[in-house]
Amino acid sequence: MGKTTAEKIFASHLVDEPFTGTKVLRLDVVMCHEITTPIAIADLVARGKDRVFDATKIKAVIDHVTPSKDSKTATQAKMLREWARRHDIKDFFDVGANGVCHALFPEKGFIRPGYTVIMGDSHTCTHGAFGAFAAGVGTTDLEVGILKGVCAFREPKTIRVNLNGTLPKGVYAKDAILYVIGQLGVNGATDRVLEFRGPVVDAMTMESRMTLSNMAIEAGGTSGICMPDMVTVEYLWPFIQNEYSSKEAALAAFSQWRSDDDAQYERVLDFDLSNLEPIVTFGYKPDQVKPATELAGTAVDQVYLGSCTNGRLEDLRVAAEILKGRKIAPTVRGILSPATPKIYQDAMAEGIIDIFMEAGFCVTNPTCGACLGMSNGVLAEGEVCASTTNRNFMGRMGKGGMVHLMSPATSAATAIEGKIADPRKYL
Ligand SMILES: CC(C)[C@H](C(=O)O)[C@@H](O)C(=O)O
Ligand code: SF4
């Protein structure tokens, strides 16, 4: 019987099965940020176990609130910084070199097909876009991962999601994943792996695949996996060209991690996206979705473009195409946070930053900041934000604030009108 990608990764990384169904896996990458890792560090220090299993496999970044906004966040940053120095963690990214973890680490080439990846962050599922098993974990698992380079999982069953057809103009990966979450529900994939397949995914860039995988957790999914292919090889080529004689050789090696044709799935879902419209959330759960046309006219106070979901160069490009030569509504605050310094620089080189600024946007440094309501764009009570992020929970971007999730294109159109708007008329 064939195996899924997740089953192949579990089989190849298995070091122990202490109880039936509980599998201890060897880890290829342990990623760390300044919100959750300092708690693990403090506990390891208190237990007299201030060690790391392999400094080259640990990647750390200060990204959630950076530059620090107060004493608390400065202390969190300091703890991570000192720990990284103490253990000679070379892949540590501090102010000036830092960006949102799930955008920065893939951009640095740290993720490869077949890898096991953990982080004390729920959107670690993003890295499944490379054909990896990547999962968010709690503090205890993170501590064990840092110390021993292993993590215990119950082997998840896989739900295969076939995205068929082709995405129409003005409709993007974000609309596709919001639609899928709307169909599955916020618990529809709990403790399951979501495997994204089909012609829509095959045609996507790595950036778009990361947008898909990023939101697997919003349907409860442990990881959101895409099949490694030539798109994956091309993205990683600058980092792997010394390891393989040709791109074809890399593709052959990566292909071992693709699910077999006769793999067994718990469920197979088929969605034809050829007639999909731009999608927007309307409530406090990411499965509460409607076509943008139905919510058109809903006034917003702020438009936020950024985050690990949609703060990448292709996102900025799409929004800039709409904003070019236009001004955002006077009633709206537009905030752009390019997700990494490289994205920021590339966007500057392409004139995208100018377009945003001329339209009336404020451009912040790369950080999570506003996405989780901590800095650089926190909402006031009763305010409404159109956002390219992944969570619309009550108060997510500020106490008493409301968030509508949408694509970069829809948010750009919304910024122009000051009300939720269909981006297709601007394309
Ligand atoms: C701070 C961190 C633990 C959190 C997460 O795990 O997702 C954050 O990234 C978020 O998106 O809410
Ligand atoms: S950008 Fe938002 S969702 Fe992504 S890791 Fe940061 S806080 Fe979490």
From TrEMBL:
Gene Ontology BP annotations: L-leucine biosynthetic process
Keyword tags: 4Fe-4S, Amino-acid biosynthesis, Branched-chain amino acid biosynthesis, Iron, Iron-sulfur, Leucine biosynthesis, Lyase, Metal-binding
Cofactor entry: [4Fe-4S] cluster
4Fe-4S listed as a keyword: yes
Entry superkingdom: Bacteria
EC id: 4.2.1.33
Keyword Cytoplasm set for record: no
PANTHER family from the UniProt entry: 3-ISOPROPYLMALATE DEHYDRATASE LARGE SUBUNIT 2, HOMOACONITASE, MITOCHONDRIAL-RELATED
Biological role stated in the UniProt entry: Catalyzes the isomerization between 2-isopropylmalate and 3-isopropylmalate, via the formation of 2-isopropylmaleate.
Entry-linked Gene3D superfamilies: Aconitase, domain 3
Protein name per the record: 3-isopropylmalate dehydratase large subunit
Enzyme class: lyase
Free-text cofactor note: Binds 1 [4Fe-4S] cluster per subunit.
Pathway(s) where this gene product acts: Amino-acid biosynthesis; L-leucine biosynthesis; L-leucine from 3-methyl-2-oxobutanoate: step 2/4
Catalysis: reaction(s): (2R,3S)-3-isopropylmalate = (2S)-2-isopropylmalate
Description of how the protein assembles with itself and partners: Heterodimer of LeuC and LeuD.
Residues bound to [4Fe-4S] cluster: C308, C368, C371
Domain (Aconitase/3-isopropylmalate dehydratase large subunit alpha/beta/alpha): residue spans on this chain: 7-293
Organism: Geobacter pickeringii
Family: Belongs to the aconitase/IPM isomerase family. LeuC type 2 subfamily.
GO MF terms held by the record: 3-isopropylmalate dehydratase activity; 4 iron, 4 sulfur cluster binding; metal ion binding
